[in-house]
Amino acid sequence: MHLHGTSRINAAGHLEIGGCDTVDLVKRFGSPLYVVDEARVREQMRRYKQAFRETGFSSQVAYASKAFSTMAMCRIVEEEGLFLDVVSEGELFTALEAGFPPSRIYFHGNNKTLRELEMGLDADIYLFVLDNFVEMEMLQTLARSRGKKVRVLLRTTPGIEAHTHNYIQTGQEDSKFGFDLSSGQVLKAVKRVLSSNDLELEGFHCHIGSQIFEVDGFRMAIRKLGEFAEETRHVTGFTTRILNLGGGFGIRYNQNDQPLPIRDYVKAISEGVQESFPHHLPEIWLEPGRSIVGEAGTTLYTIGTVKEIPGVRKYVAVDGGMNDHPRTALYQASYEAILANRASAPCEETVSVAGKLCETGDMLIWDIPLPKVNNGDILAVSCTGAYHYSMSNNYNRVARPAVAFVQNGQADLVVRRETLADLIRNDRIPERLKAGESSSS
Ligand SMILES: Cc1ncc(COP(=O)(O)O)c(C=O)c1O
Ligand SMILES: N[C@@H](CCCC[NH3+])C(=O)O
Fold first, then answer.
1. Any binding-site annotation on 289?
2. Which of the ligands is closest to the CA of residue 110?
3. Is 2.40.50.140 the CATH classification of the domain at 8-37+294-423?
4. What is the CA angle 323-403-317, rounded to 5?
5. CATH 3.20.20.10 domain range(s) in the chain
6. What is the CATH number of domain 38-289?
7. Would the CA dihedral through 104, 106, 211, 378 be positive or negative?
8. pLDDT in tens, 389-419
9. What is the ipTM of this complex?
10. For the Orn/DAP/Arg decarboxylase 2 C-terminal domain, which residue ranges apply (predicted)?
11. Residue bearing the CA closest to ligand 2, atom 2
12. Can you tell me the distance from the alpha carbon of 304 to that of 375, in angstroms, rounded to the nearest whole number?
């Protein structure tokens, strides 16, 4: 397993993260446990800011909450001076409760509810990324009734669909997100916003995909948006002030993944903007999620049962599964792992790591080399910081794990483990179904 960030193997032969022995972490907090290397998270945030400083471009970096949203995470985003992208009232609530300044929050989403728009407006967030005409009408009405003028970006779909290792140009993009560029929807949206007294157009947004390892897709999107912005300037006189190019920067889940350094993405994007916006340079905004927090996360599991099918496969089962680790089942994603309690032991066999849930597809890792495992060993799966806790669920009524931040030898619980009581907290038994009151008796 590649050792990311502050991960290392200590004198006891245990995996250590943020100066904390992971075997001790499991003793203290139980398993499964999400561990987040705080220094690594901060380092990634600083890399984006530093990269923009080097290009000399006016910029903002926002963290995409969807990757991993907790109150402690919002505090870190706040301390590091980033903006925050939220896509739901839950993410907004988390940020506000954590004391994150609304003036650095903006709201995304293809189907924001009335309540969400109201919540954002009443909190005085920085802006809304408008996704469609229905929402535009709703926001306009709400803004007018509050006597507010609201900043907006228009989310565009520029007809580029980026995938993990390649990108394809789709022309007319088939997407539920945003205003379509090629059919003229964006220009129509621009005209409507400009004619509104309640909305203030700041610029454009696009997000071409996630886990991207190259810069060509970004460059193509910038070119298209540059051409569009120029046309818009001629037709309406509007000059783009903010160009938000989304997130999507890839990370290293395993040895096949070769992401570019953050500096390279930022440099290519900045150069692209320079070329494609020759008359007026907009402020460049990015909203990375995965690349901020993904490699900083490690999940610790306790190994339980082992099933060997001679000549076929050896299944090693852990005390979690697709409810805390959904990306293998969802995207056939591939991960690396080591035994945290015997981190230097040589690998002796190839096994597949299964979860404990009642699904054949409940697999964490197919075919990885490990030492011979024993019941009670601790398995550390790396690169689980993004889209793991945030996508976790209670399938099979399994409680969600705890999350601990580690730094400088200190571990802080930032999300407590769910309890059995949490699992039934929202359940109600109607009077007629209460024990001893059955109508069939
Ligand atoms: C609009 C938008 N912005 C930002 C992100 C964050 O992407 P990533 O985590 O790949 O950086 C996403 C998710 O793909 C997104 O849909
Ligand atoms: N949840 C996805 C990424 C979706 C990003 C949000 N648009 C993943 O884990 O890779």
1. yes
2. 1
3. no
4. 40
5. 38-289
6. 3.20.20.10
7. positive
8. 999 999 999 999 999 999 999 999 999 999 9
9. 0.98
10. 34-385
11. 387
12. 5
